[in-house]
Structure formats: C-alpha cells, structure tokens
Amino acid sequence: MKVVEKYPIGSVAVLLPLSIALYAILQHGADAFVRVTGLSQGVRLTEAVRFFVYEVPKVLLLLTLVVFVVGIVRSYFSPEGTRAMLGGKSLFSGNVLASMLGIVTPFCSCSAVPLFIGFVEAGIPLGVTFSFLIAAPMINEIAVVLLFGIFGWQTALLYVGTGLVIAITAGFVIGKLKVEGLVEDWVYQIRSNSVLMQETAPQFRDRIQSGYSAVSDIVGKVWPYLLVGIGVGAGIHGYVPENFMEGVMGKSAWWSVPVAVLIGVPLYSNAAGIIPVVQALLAKGASLGTALAFMMSVIGLSLPETIILRKVLKLPLIFIFVGVVAFGITIVGYLFNLVY
Amino acid sequence: MKVKILGSGCSKCKMLEQRVRRLDEAHQLHLEIEKVTDLEEIMQYGILMTPGLIIDGILKSYGNIPTDEQLLQWLKEKRI
C-alpha cells in the first residue's frame, strides 16, 4: 500500500492491465481448478464449486475496478455541493436532479440523519430530499457493477433507469402530500453555525488516491457478504432443481412481486450479498421483475435505516416513506414481468 | 487540547475515535477526548456527513477518516 500511496498514478498503470489479464483467464482458471481437484463433471457439487471459484474472483475484480472509478468520480461531488445545487429547485426538476445526484454523491446510511437535517435547514423541499434519500442507497455502484458483470449492460441500465423513476416519483408524491408537519419539531429548530473549513481543490493525484481509499473502504467491507452471497448462489446453482422457482417466483404467480417486496423490505443486505443470490434464483426460473423487486427492496429499504430516520421523522411519515417506495418497487416488478 | 468526535455510532465514527485515542497514547498528547452522540449537538456544527472531528472548537474534518499523519499534524499544531 505504501508504494501505491507514493505513486498513485503509476500504480494504476501497472494494476489496470494486470487485472484485465486476470479477468481474461478466469474461466480457464475455474475449469482448471475443477480438473485439478478431481471433481467429476456434471455432479451437483462440481457445478456449485465451479460457480463459486469462477464468480468470486470475477466479481471481486469487477467490484474493485468500479469502486475505484466511482471513488474518483465521487471526489468531484460532495453533500455540500449537492445541497447547493438543489437549493431553490422547484418540485419536479428538483426531484429529478436530487435522484441523479443521489447516485454520485458520497453517502452512507449512517449519515442519513445529518444529511436530512442539513437539506431541510437549507430550505430544500421535503419531496426533493426524499428523492435523494431513496436514490442514494438503492442505485449504488455495487449493484450496478454486479448487474453489469452478471447479467450484462442492459439489465444494469434498466436497474438504474427504474431506480431513478422510483426515486423521482416517490419523492414527488411525498412532496405533494405536504408532510412537513410529520417531521420531528426539533429538526426545524436547529440552526447550525456553519463553520465548515474551506476546502482546497484536490489535485488529480489526490482524486486517484480517493479511488484507492474507496476500494480499501468498500471492498474491504463487503467481501465477506460477497463470499456468503456467492456461496448461497453456488448452493442454489448446484442443488436447486431447474425451474424450481417457476411456481414461486415465476411470472405465472401474480402474487410473487408483492410477496417478494414484503419479504425484502425488512431484510437488509448490501448489494454484494444479494445479487449473487438473485442470479441463482433467476437461473432457476424466477422471473426478472420479481427478482429485481426483491433486490431493490432489500437494498433500498432497510430496517436499520428507518430506525435511524425515526429520529427525524414521525412514525406516520416513516410509513408513508416506506409505503410509497415499496409501492413503486412493486409496480416496477410487475412492469418487468410484463415486458420480459 | 480538547478533541470532539461527532458521530451517532457508525463504524467510521468508532474507527476515528480509536485512531485518535491510539495517537493520544502513542505520542503522549494528553488530549481531552469526547465522543458526541447527541444528534442536536452534532448538527450544531453543520456537518452533512459523520464522523466529524473538532479540535479546540474548530471543525477539522467530516465524512471521512483523516490519515494518521494528518491527524497528528493537527493534534500537535498548537503545542509549540
């Protein structure tokens, strides 16, 4: 790491081709691994092992690369800048902008409360603030990269697009509901004496550096989830019979979408854990809409986040928030099942 | 020197507190370290992301964990 810190740009030049080369030989590597360990072809265990040995390095490589790039991109954005951009925006255009900024602005759900208060204090409409709070966790780089890596760019694009639509409309609807009275009163009383230090514009070198720290931060944190997720995925891949999910999560089961959302909302996992599971479910006959709805509700809404938000939102508003988003996800699920 | 760490309990906040305490011990800085978890007090400082680091009443950083080098520089600044 010391070398990387000292020569951030030079190390990119070395590490990038290396990871591409590695990526290119993965399939052979997995096949070779199965051969060497003497597992027999076509057996369930073999298929599970092959899945695991191939997916783990592939997803880790992709993740590292994208988190690195996103880390650099994010260094151009800050919550303060986003707040400044959103100030004075009208409801609809504010919702659109907030949702898009939600994708690129650095955000962690433990900062949801300070961010919420900061936005409200700056006079940004509640609906616009919600658009941001919905988009930021749901459309995250991990979800996008995994969808891209596993299902291709169309699915990744679809996910981003529908995520945006949900964040925009949900925020817009909440804005129209005039729920200002359902925010805890103390939020409005806060007057912060903004003592923010002036920021010196970072150099490109520093931005590369933030790419590296994003990698050690995020990849360092999610890899265990990823292993578990791919492990479960591998299990489903090898052991659950083909089309097993057809009846439960397939198109024919009309109730599958709302049920998937209901199960997904209280659950929380980051994208790294859930997507390999979704992939395996899809392979066994679950329909895309149902699987996506499940995934969105797991990543986008979570019990811990709502508990944190309870500090600033009265209970009815929590329910409105969760209800509107869950409804949006359900619609998207049905839509996908209809189209595909 | 008074150091305040603003954070309602996320992992980054805990990590920052640990780092500051470790530096305090390793370099004999005799800091007065306080962890602020009360949201209203945190918001007084106008930060949008936690953790925040306040040294002698001045906001030094927020939203990330500064490097040990940077922390040490800030913590030693006024000593001379």
Q: Tally the helices of chain A: what do you get? A: 18
Q: Kindly give the count of domains of chain A.
A: 1
Tell me the greatest interface. A-B, 24 and 24 residues
Please trace the helix and strand order of chain B, writing H or E for each element.
EHEHEEH
Rounded radius of gyration of chain B (Å)? 12 Å
For this entry, what is the oligomeric state of its chains?
heterodimer
From the 3D coordinates, which CATH architecture of chain B would you assign? 3-Layer(aba) Sandwich
Determine the structural class of chain A based on helices, strands and strand pairing. mainly alpha
Tell me the name of the CATH homologous superfamily of chain B. Glutaredoxin
Uncertain spans of chain B: none
Descriptive notes:
- The complex is a heterodimer of chains A (340) and B (80).
- Chain A is mainly α and 340 residues long.
- Chain A is 75% helix and 0% strand.
- Chain A has one domain (2-188, 206-339).
- Chain A has 18 helices and no strands.
- Chain A is globular.
- Chain A starts with a helix and ends with a helix.
- In chain B, strands 2-1-3-4 form a four-stranded mixed beta sheet.
- Chain B has three helices and four strands, in the order βαβαββα.
- With 80 residues, chain B is an alpha+beta fold.
- The radius of gyration of chain B is 12 Å and the shape is globular.
- Chain B has one domain: Glutaredoxin, CATH 3.40.30.10.
- The interface between A and B is medium-sized, with 24 and 24 residues.
